[in-house]
Amino acid sequence: MSETKVTFGQSEDEALAPLKNIQNIVSKLESRIENIEKEVSKIEDIKIQLISMSSKINDMEKRVQEVEDRNSKIEDSVEEMSQIVNSALDKYTDNSDQIEILNKAIKALQNTKDNRKLDEVHVSKLRSLEEDVVEMKWRSMHNNLIFSGLRYQPDEDTEIKIRDFINKELGLYNTISFGNVHRFCKKIETDKSTRGELKFSFLNICGLKSKSLASEFSDLVINNDISIFVETKTDKLDIISLPNGYSCFSKHRSKFKRKSGGIVIIYKSELEKFLTFPKTKSEFLQWIQFSKDLLNDNVLMGCVYIPPEGSKYSSVDAFTEIENEFLHLSEPNLKNVLIGDFNAKTSTLPYYVIPDQHLLEILNTDDTQTMHYFSDYNGL
């Protein structure tokens, strides 16, 4: 240092001044670096907080989705309840109208009775009308109890059946006095189908789960060998109430979160060994293969439900899917039939096709037997 001072001819203080400046600059840099490090540590804390917030937001999104799913189920339940209430109100209105008509008829007969002596026929009619009025009043009275969904069984005691239901299902064990216990509907006698003959029914039921509890549903099923229901709005968790001796096969629509579409086939359990339900991908139909031992012919039936055009469930490929599966399952000497709700919207046009030369050209066939069959309207 002394040599440096001598060289430059500077004093000691003058020689140390640049070094002090450099030292001051370094000190300031160190201070700034410390501040920067503190700020960086704060950024790390913010990053951790952001990760935590992101996790909480994901949890909230899941909960919101669960709430939306529950709301959707509640809306479906409310819609079904609304349909039931509307049906009950319609029945009540019909009963009131019938009571009014019967009262007018009774008054007319009573006026006639005052004016002249009624013969036995008029008396019988009057008594019959009075009984009908009493019956209708019973149905409309608040003290009446109407139970639905109790399946009919041959030789049943209706009062005992009602008491068992009240005790076991409602948990009411007090002794209840009934004035009159009876069924409203007539008993349906089911006849066993002869070989080669089956009785079918088809219905677009627009929601099967709740309606399967109604007595009318049970009556419809037991009056047929096979009942086909579409737009059932069911899934694999739904339990369908079936009459004794009946089984069912279901195909549910799985592409949408909300229940929609769906096909359910209910059949006598004794027919199960004669029926096959091929598994296919299309949600627009379910096939039934009938054994020759049952109908004297091998028969393939397609149970169809095609959503209305323009709805969010519709598809331009619906008929193509049906045609492809039909061609895949068809075999020689196999008779085919399609039944269902095609939502054809034909308006004033006929629902059937007249077999003529144009149809034969579309089918691209010149088979003599087929042409003769088309021309035999009695055989169709």
Blueprint of the fold:
Elements: H1 2-8, H2 12-115, H3 120-140, H4 158-168, E1 200-204, H5 215-222, E2 226-230, E3 246-251, E4 263-268, E5 275-276, E6 285-290, H6 292-295, E7 299-305, H7 318-329, E8 335-341, H8 357-363, H9 368-375
Parallel strand pairs: 1-2, 7-8
Antiparallel strand pairs: 2-4, 3-4, 5-6, 6-7
How are the strands of the biggest sheet laid out side by side? 1-2-4-3
Whole-number mean pLDDT? 78
Helix content: 40-55%
**Helix-and-strand structural type:** alpha/beta
**Could you list the spans in which at least 5 consecutive residues all have pLDDT below 50?**
185-194
Largest sheet: 4 strands, mixed
The whole-angstrom Rg is: 40 Å
**SS elements, strand count:** 8
Give the percentage of residues in beta strands.
5-15%
Overview of this structure, please?
This protein has helices at about 1-10, 10-115, 120-140, 160-170, 215-220, 290-295, 320-330, 355-365, 370-375, and strands at about 200-205, 225-230, 245-250, 265-270, 275, 285-290, 300-305, 335-340. The chain has about 375 residues and is α/β, with parallel strands linked by helices. The strands form two sheets. Strands 1-2-4-3 form a four-stranded mixed sheet, covered by helices on one side. It has a four-stranded mixed sheet with strand order 5-6-7-8. Helix 7 (about 320-330) links the parallel strand 7 and strand 8. Helix 2 (about 10-115) packs antiparallel against helix 3 (about 120-140). The longest helix is centred in the first third of the chain and has 104 residues, at about 10-115. The N and C termini lie far apart (about 125 Å). This is Endonuclease/exonuclease/phosphatase domain-containing protein. InterPro entries: Endo/exonu/phosph_ase_sf. Keywords: Coiled coil.
